[in-house]
Design a protein that fits this description.
The complex is a heterodimer. Helix content of chain A is about 20%, strand content about 45%. Chain A is an alpha+beta fold. Chain A is globular. By secondary structure, chain B is mainly alpha-helical. Helix content of chain B is about 65%, strand content about 5%. Chain B contains 12 helices and 4 strands. In chain B, the strands form 2 sheets. Chain B has a two-stranded antiparallel sheet with strand order 1-4. In chain B, a hairpin with a 2-residue loop joins strand 2 and strand 3. In chain B, helix 4 runs parallel beside helix 9, helix 5 packs antiparallel against helix 6 and helix 10 (about 200-220) runs antiparallel to helix 11. The chains are: A alpha+beta, B mainly alpha. At the A-B interface, helix 1, strand 1, strand 2 and strand 8 of A face helix 1, helix 4, helix 8, helix 10 and strand 2 of B. Strand 8 (about 105-110) of chain A pairs parallel with strand 3 (about 265-270) of chain B.
């Protein structure tokens, strides 16, 4: 009987731990929306959850003459080791949010060239491997 | 003690079952009869391409910021909704009206906006995705121009949710049509404004840049050309448009960017550049073909 109780309690405990360990990237990306700087219009929210790959990637066509802002929200400040890098259509790196060991939570990119851009999130010393991000624009 | 253990086990099972779909969701899914026969490529690939299509709101902001006046005559009449009886027409015109709503919102023409909201809600209901369009909140925000930011945010979020839902329900064909309709309407408005302002180089370049989006849209439509006659026909129309866009030349010169940190934000200086070669004749031809395609879509 004792064994059965221990098994049942273990299952309950493990289930609880799984819930605690779940990544609520949607909530984090919603929390990111008000952090867009004044004048920026919301475009997209992105979930950042570590899956099978070492990175999470999205893409979007940026337009010449438009300024874009990408920000990152994570449970631990400022970004819990989440780094966003921006690549142009030819996969040239345009920007990365880790500079001199510092993690920057927001990038503003005044675009000079219309084309597909790749928004790539990587993890550098992250503990939760979980975050949210938003993309906004202004003219 | 046994009763306690059985109770705990039952509670555990019921907790595990919480991940199941709700009855309401199951009912809504049951109503979805608009599933296409299937694209020739995975839904994941289609989703990756769909997410790249820029929001038509960007063009509306460009028009307003460049000092162009509001003109409701550019838009599709919300009264045309009675003409849209097939899922194909509903999805396309949901996109058309979405762009029109964004345009009225940006210009703070709330009376017109309310009419588009009603038509959008009807079309969305007809496609069983009306639950994602929060007309009550949007209508309330539209009554006060101080709510513009919130209005734009909620509207964009609603449309993003619709797209996401359609893709998760294997109804990406409707998502493709929705985004195609939105893009088509934005390009139509830009062409009309550019024709009234022939000296405006920025508008001409914006029309030229649409070459990149057209390629994506044609790629998306091509995935359905074997399974959907309507989408195949739309693709044929887009091929006519592409013939003109083939004359538009976009050149790109990459140069490493630089940056500075301003108030905790990394501000990038893009040192790359691009040029877009497009002639007034190209603009005229693009406008003519866009008008023709749009007339088929909205009639």
């Amino acid at each position: 009987m004792k064994k059965l109780i221990i098994i049942v309690l273990s299952v309950i405990t493990l289930s609880s731990l799984e819930v605690i360990g779940q990544c609520n990237s949607e909530t984090l990306s919603n929390q990111c929306i008000p952090k867009l700087a004044a004048g920026f219009n919301f475009l997209k929210s992105y979930k950042i959850e570590k899956g099978g790959k070492d990175y999470v990637e999205y893409s979007y066509v940026f337009t010449k003459g438009t300024q874009y802002m990408i920000n990152i929200c994570a449970v631990a400040q400022p970004t819990d080791g989440i780094v966003v890098s921006l690549y142009d259509s030819k996969r040239n790196k345009v920007a990365t949010s880790k500079v001199n060991g510092q993690f920057i939570a927001a990038i503003a990119y005044p675009c000079n060239t219309t084309g597909i851009y790749y928004i790539q999130y990587t993890f550098d010393g992250s503990t939760g491997y979980c975050g949210g991000s938003t993309l906004g624009f202004k003219r | 003690m046994r009763i306690v253990i059985i109770g705990v086990i039952l509670a555990l099972f019921s907790a595990c079952g919480s991940g199941k779909k709700s009855d309401e969701q199951a009912f809504l899914e049951g109503l979805d009869s608009a599933k296409a026969e299937g694209p020739s490529i995975s839904e994941g690939v289609i989703g990756d391409i769909l997410q790249q299509i820029p929001s038509p709101l960007e063009i509306s902001v460009l028009l307003k910021e460049s000092g162009r006046k509001y003109n409701v005559g550019y838009l599709n009449s919300p009264d045309n909704i009675s003409k849209y009886n097939s899922n194909y027409k509903k999805a396309l015109n949901l996109g058309v009206y979405g762009t029109d709503l964004g345009y009225t919102n940006i210009y703070e023409q709330n009376q017109d906006g309310v009419k588009y909201m009603a038509s959008i809600k009807d079309l969305a209901d007809g496609l069983n995705i009306g639950q994602f369009f929060d007309i009550e909140t949007i209508g309330r925000l539209a009554t006060n121009s101080k709510n513009l930011d919130s209005l734009l945010l909620i509207t964009t979020q609603n449309f993003n949710s619709i797209n996401h839902y359609l893709q998760t329900q294997n109804r990406s064909n409707l998502s493709v049509l929705f985004l195609t309709g939105g893009w088509l309407e934005a390009l139509h408005i830009t062409c009309e404004v550019a024709t009234s302002n022939p000296a405006n180089k920025e508008l001409q370049e914006t029309i030229g840049e649409q070459k990149i989006i057209l390629e994506n849209i044609m790629l998306l439509l091509s995935f359905y050309k074997e399974s959907d006659q309507n989408m195949a026909s739309l693709l044929t129309d887009m091929e006519e448009l592409k013939k003109i866009y083939d004359k538009v030349n976009i050149t790109y010169t990459y140069k490493e960017s630089t940056f500075e940190i301003v108030d905790g934000v990394m501000v990038i200086k893009d040192n790359s550049s691009s040029t877009i070669q497009i002639t007034p004749e190209d603009i005229s031809s693009i406008r003519s073909i866009i008008t023709s395609i749009r007339n088929k879509v909205i009639s």
